[in-house]
């Protein structure tokens, strides 16, 4: 089985730093990259049942927009690296979903940026980085 690295990417500057670090790690170790973007889906949102129903209806649209606006630009940048790069786009709790991707794909390493777009919510609910450091089944690198 070949080595694989999952890098969490949300389009932020810190996420791009994590991608650049993961590229170097993958090149040094002969690994492939999985660029993962997770659209946060929390059951603890403050939406009404009607709003939640409407959000479910917009799910396909949100996934298409994330693919176009977040993943495709970074995949284009990575096209010239010579690495095998694939992407994952999912809904869910970010840390739990990244762990699930790592388990399903049998990856060797997780790489994420220290802070993404959710700075305020991470102070209230805990950070993705902290959750991954505690629960990930593989080594986690947190890139500043």
From TrEMBL:
Annotated UspA domain residues: 1-144
Source taxon at top rank: Bacteria
Xref: Gene3D superfamilies: HUPs
Pfam family, one: Usp
Family classification: Belongs to the universal stress protein A family.
Protein name: Universal stress protein
Species per Swiss-Prot/TrEMBL record: Roseibium porphyridii
């Amino acid at each position: 089985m070949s080595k694989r690295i999952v890098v969490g990417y949300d389009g932020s500057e810190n996420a791009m730093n994590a991608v650049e670090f993961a590229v170097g790690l993958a090149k040094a170790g002969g690994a492939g990259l999985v660029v993962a973007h997770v659209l946060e889906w929390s059951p603890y949102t403050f939406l009404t049942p009607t709003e939640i129903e409407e959000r479910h209806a917009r799910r396909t649209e949100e996934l298409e927009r994330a693919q176009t606006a977040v993943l495709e630009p970074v995949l284009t940048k990575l096209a010239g690296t010579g690495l095998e790069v694939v992407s994952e786009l999912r809904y869910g709790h970010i840390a739990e979903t990244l762990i699930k991707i790592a388990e399903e794909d049998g990856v060797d390493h997780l790489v994420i940026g220290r802070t993404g777009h959710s700075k305020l919510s991470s102070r209230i609910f805990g950070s993705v980085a902290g959750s991954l450091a505690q629960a990930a089944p593989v080594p986690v690198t947190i890139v500043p």
